[in-house]
Amino acid sequence: MYILHKRLIASLILVMVLTTLSGQVFAQASQCGVERGKTGGTLQEPTYRKLNDIYEDVGNELYDIAYDKLKVMISRAKGKYLKATLFQMMAQVEWARSNFDSALSNFEKAVALDALPDHIHFALMYQIAQLYYMQERYDDALDKLALWMCKVPPEKIKPASYVLKASIYAQKKDWKNVIPAIETAISMSDAPKESWYQLKLASHFELGQFPKAADTLEVMIQHWPEKKDYWVQLSQIYYKLKRDDSALSVIALAYRRGMLDKQTDIMYLSNLYSNREVPYKAAEVLQKGIEDGIVEASKKHWTMVADTWYAAEEMEKALDAYERAGKASEDGDIDLRRGYILVDMERWEKAVEALEAALEKGGFNDRKMGEAYVLLGMSEFKLENYSKAKTAWDRAGKYAKSRKSAQQWKNHMREERARKKAQS
């Protein structure tokens, strides 16, 4: 939005009103075939002195005094040029006082007289469009901007004019018309602003034009490679477009550049690695995120790390992660899971530790309770702690689903002890 600083008002008035009006004339035909080549008029010395006095008031921010003097002058003014000049000055003072309705009215009166030199006349037309935009009268703003573009010489239309046009369409949520306007602004500029690309990108999103949004983000990353959000957005769009390899490549590069600083970013990257069946990297990224304090060190996250290390067949790392998950958990489910793995690996002492921790915390159903006691008994048996093994199996026998298994193990232990005794 275009708002003049109060201190610049005086300079603008001085440049637009009190300067010599003998500059270059725009005598060529406009795009609408309307010719204009006015150079303005002349001011008599007494009038010039009065305007200069008013300018001093404006420079001192005495806007009320300046406006009262202008009202007296306009009531006595004769000739279109002087009246247009006074209306224009009154508009600028009202703008400085934030009386935008009055400023707009005075600007329009100045333009309607069609007496000001081209460079002032066209500037006022443009300001009128801006004022309508500021007042959220978007249809009027578009009409006035279109009229200005129609009247002004083509070489006077700058990228900012198309940015204004795009912004008006954006306020109307007319995204289809935003895009050609903002693309014109971008094409006209040697150094397009980031906000212009952001408006273009937003329009593609609103219209569901995801391939074009991806193209826009690729350009934005080239211009502003330090902006993490663009990397994340581009990766997510690629993922939406089922370009999984591209999605992973982009976000992985952002990670290597040290740009991913939020839990959602790390989780997203880890999940992409898992989806592409690269569990080692998935676990590595997620675990580092936890250790760096980016990802919460919760049971859920450590379990995800452990499960992924397990999928990568990195058992030591999986066990370490399960142990950390167990410490962050109030129930014994994770310790029981660790116990299963340790039994499979025949690491009996560690299995006993995990299973005892699981049973102490509890929190799981009867079936798992029975299984835990069966496994604990197995581990104690392998360590030749026969009394502890029997105790564990006796407890397992209290659960219907593990009773048969517990009895089989007790029978096996009797037979094994009898065999060893016979051999001794």
Overview of the molecule:
Residues 1-31 have low confidence and may be disordered. The chain is mostly helical and 424 residues long. 74% of the residues lie in helices and 0% in strands. The chain contains 22 helices and no strands. It has a domain at 1-21 and 29-157: Serine Threonine Protein Phosphatase 5, Tetratricopeptide repeat. The longest helix is centred in the C-terminal third of the chain and has 24 residues, at 400-423.
Detail the poorly predicted runs. Answer: 1-31
How many strands, what sense, and barrel or not for the largest sheet? none
> Given the structure, what is the number of helices?
22
Using only C-alpha atoms, the radius of gyration works out to: 39 Å
| Shape verdict | rod-shaped
CATH topology name of the domain at 1-21 and 29-157, in short, is Serine Threonine Protein Phosphatase 5, Tetratricopeptide repeat
CATH architecture identity of the domain at 1-21 and 29-157: Alpha Horseshoe
Total strand count, please? 0
Mean pLDDT: 88
CATH class of the domain at 1-21 and 29-157: Mainly Alpha
Order of helix and strand elements from N to C terminus:
HHHHHHHHHHHHHHHHHHHHHH
Structural class: mainly alpha
